[in-house]
Design a protein that fits this description.
By secondary structure, the chain is mostly helical. 61% of the residues lie in helices and 5% in strands. A hairpin with a 2-residue loop joins strand 1 and strand 2.
Length: 166
């Protein structure tokens, strides 16, 4: 009645409080009702089990039967039975994925020159500024160092500024 009255005229503060109280009570009763229904459904499930589980198990079983390979022809011979099908499939795929012997070049017997300790140390020493400048000047000016678009020409033009960056 209060909601109908609120549609036509403004409610007083007491009526608004009463409306809120009724709404809260209705919400509380609705929650209690839902809880009771949930408990009853749970008790029913515990007593009688899930009625649909037989249906779902039959669907899974039929899908499993449908996905099995019961027989097939290999070189004009019918192969059937679980063990025969399994061994035939295994032998086919094992022959497909075996490494084939091929004549590959061998490194055995070849003599390679090894680096001296000094040459090995030279490989890990830092570059000098002159070596970097020589490498930059050997590159064409319109080539980019990376996807940022900075060209070697830019590096050459601003070498005095860029060479001190470390």
């Amino acid at each position: 009645m209060l909601e109908l009255k609120a549609e036509s005229v403004a409610l007083s503060d007491e009526e608004i409080q009463e409306l809120h109280g009724h709404s809260e009570e209705l919400f509380s009763l609705s929650r209690i009702n839902s809880s009771i229904w949930w408990q009853q459904v749970r008790m029913h499930w515990l007593r009688e089990g899930d009625a649909n589980s037989k249906f779902y198990h039959s669907i899974i079983s039929s899908r499993s039967r449908r996905n099995t390979i019961q027989f097939f022809m290999v070189d004009g011979v019918l192969v059937e039975g679980v063990d025969n099908v399994r061994s035939t499939v295994f032998s086919y795929f094992s022959s497909q994925f075996q490494a084939r012997r091929s004549n590959r070049p061998s490194m055995e017997g070849m003599q390679f020159r090894s680096l001296s300790c000094r040459e090995g140390a030279d490989l890990i020493k830092p570059f000098s500024l002159d070596e970097v400048k020589a490498a930059v000047w050997d590159c064409e000016s319109f080539k980019c160092l990376g996807p940022d678009g900075i060209t070697f020409g830019f590096v050459k033009d601003f070498w005095d500024v860029l060479k001190v960056l470390e």
